[in-house]
Design goal:
Keywords: Membrane, Transferase, Transmembrane, Transmembrane helix. The protein is α/β, with parallel strands linked by helices and about 150 residues long. About 45% of the residues lie in helices and about 15% in strands. A four-stranded parallel β-sheet has the order 3-2-1-4, with helices on both faces.
């Protein structure tokens, strides 16, 4: 009888240990989402590739472990960029801010105006800034996506 109680005690302790071992392994394997991050994207005159970029960003965002909020600021585009983004906003989840073009094209605070407006619309403390205005217009959207979205966040 004492032998049976001893075996049952060892069996219970073994099961108890295996249970906590499995829990610890799951904690190591399971990825907890990181802190919420806002992505501030400032662009101008990107009508040729803005739809591709936004759709690719949305599909990329589904498979990430971060809670990512996207804020897009159109810095006074003269092409159809704002209209394309307004149409995409119905299907994709991002916040869109459109700024009117200034009367002085090379105003010294133009760059700061777009960033400050975008930062006011970001809800999170961590902000990832992507400035697409500095890229040449002939650069393919696929290369832009690889540089900013695939390599920038791992």
């Amino acid at each position: 009888m004492w032998e049976t109680i001893g075996y049952l005690t060892i069996l219970i302790l073994a099961c108890y240990g295996v249970y906590y071992l499995v829990q610890d392994l799951f904690r190591l394997v399971r990825h907890l989402p990181g802190p919420p991050v806002s992505m501030l994207m400032v662009l101008r005159n990107r009508a040729a590739d803005v739809e591709y970029l936004m759709r690719r960003l949305e599909s990329w965002r589904r498979y990430q472990w971060v809670n990512l909020e996207v804020v897009v600021v159109d810095d006074g585009s003269e092409d159809d960029t704002a209209d394309i983004l307004k149409g995409l906003q119905q299907n994709l989840s991002f916040r869109f801010v459109s700024l009117e073009p200034e009367s002085l094209p090379e105003h010294p605070f133009r760059k700061d105006r777009a960033f400050m407006t975008g930062l006011l619309h970001c809800q999170n403390a961590l902000v990832w800034v992507v400035d697409l205005r500095k890229l040449p217009q002939g650069l393919l959207a696929e290369k832009v996506f690889r540089v900013f979205f695939c390599q920038g966040w791992r």
